[in-house]
Design brief:
The chain is of the alpha/beta class. The chain contains six helices and ten strands, in the order βββαβαβαβαβββαβα. It has helices at 31-41, 56-65, 81-90, 110-120, 158-166, 185-192, and strands spanning 3-8, 25-26, 29-30, 46-51, 71-74, 97-102, 127-132, 135-136, 140-143, 169-171. The longest helix has 11 residues, at 31-41.
Length: 193
């Protein structure tokens, strides 16, 4: 079965110095809760990647939203998003495919996830990503056929992931949510309208 990997290990310092953008309220709930809800409404299991040094408030909020076994701790989140992706994938090595969904993208829809999964069903597609109005977005789908060797270090998967993403199949006409993220307070305010 495919697994959704929600990324929540970033610093988010463009939003605020407290690293709490994922807890900012949008339509009555934290931004990260929308990404988790998308995974659940897609009827797929999920893993959520948190930094080992995540703010306690974020850890507490995520712990209420998901089971402890679904939290993946990234001790090296400072190494960047590729490392967080690799940590999430390594936590579900037997997944049929992986759907990588940033936790700061509250408007992604389950139909977007399903479109990415359909693209991964094609035998020659190793990675897929949605687009809206020609702009590439998220979630990104990664195929098990990438052949990632999980016996090595998590970091060793990075170059393979980057290559796959560079050649991802683009899926046209997905929802606007695939290109709407919350990097700044202005982004949040724009989505709240």
């Amino acid at each position: 079965m495919p697994v959704v990997v929600v990324l929540a290990a970033g610093r988010g310092t463009r939003f605020n110095a407290d690293r709490t953008k994922l807890l900012a309220l949008l339509r009555g709930k934290p931004v990260v809760a929308h990404a988790i809800d998308c995974a659940r409404r897609s009827h797929l299991p999920l893993k959520i990647v948190l930094a080992n040094d995540a703010p306690r408030t974020l850890i507490d909020a995520v712990s209420i939203l998901v089971e402890a076994r679904d939290i993946v701790w990234n001790a090296n989140s400072a190494l960047g998003v590729t490392h967080s992706i690799a940590c999430g994938l390594a936590a579900a090595p037997d997944a049929a495919n992986w759907i990588v969904l940033p936790g700061d993208m509250p408007n992604v829809q389950p139909d977007d996830v399903r479109a990415v999964l359909r693209a991964l069903d094609e035998p020659d597609v190793l990675a897929a990503r949605p687009t809206h109005a020609g702009e590439p977005g998220y979630p990104v789908g990664l195929s098990r056929r990438l052949g990632i060797d999980w016996s090595g270090s998590v970091a060793s998967a990075g170059p393979l992931l980057l290559k796959a993403l560079a050649h991802a199949r683009r899926i046209a006409d997905c929802s606007p949510g695939v290109v709407q993220d919350v990097d700044t307070v202005a982004d949040l305010n724009g989505l709240a309208r």
